[in-house]
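Suppose a colleague, Dr. K., hands you the sequence of a protein chain of 170 amino acids and asks what its three-dimensional shape might be. Before reaching for any lab equipment, you can write down a predicted structure in token form. Begin with the sequence itself:
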Amino acid sequence: MVAQQAATIELSDKQRKILEKLDKGTHTPLHLKTRAHIILNAADGMNNKQIARHNNLNRNQVKKWRNRWDHLAEAVAQVETERPHALKATIHDTLSDEQRSGKPRFFTDEQVAEILTLSCQSPKDKDLPYSHWTPGKLARQAEKEGIVESISTRSVSRFLKIGGSQTPPK
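The predicted structure, expressed as tokens, is then:
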């Protein structure tokens, strides 16, 4: 079995400066620092095994980011030529995790809206013996009224906190 040759990484001066800033930055998230360091090591001629050993990383992790950079290097170079002001953001995006689909939504927008509407009503209007809603009481009432089959107090709290949106604002 023949070992596959790792992709050769070549960086422009601007790309190297941006990656070095990420690598040395005191406020750079650790995952970006690590990935920038991998690319810089690869551009300096280190192989994946050396990079992994030098940075105490898994070789597959090094291979993944080296290949990702190699795959997107042409697009990064094109951005550098055509829109140099966007180079830093492009490099940041290249070294960032890809979007994941995440867990599917469990409650419909209509159910969330009905729970929020219920929260705006007085419990006394429902002939309940308390003056205000707590998330737990609201959850039990939503189940009782058939808005949802079942819901946790935490889910109700989250809907109230973020105004019904099922994904928090960024």
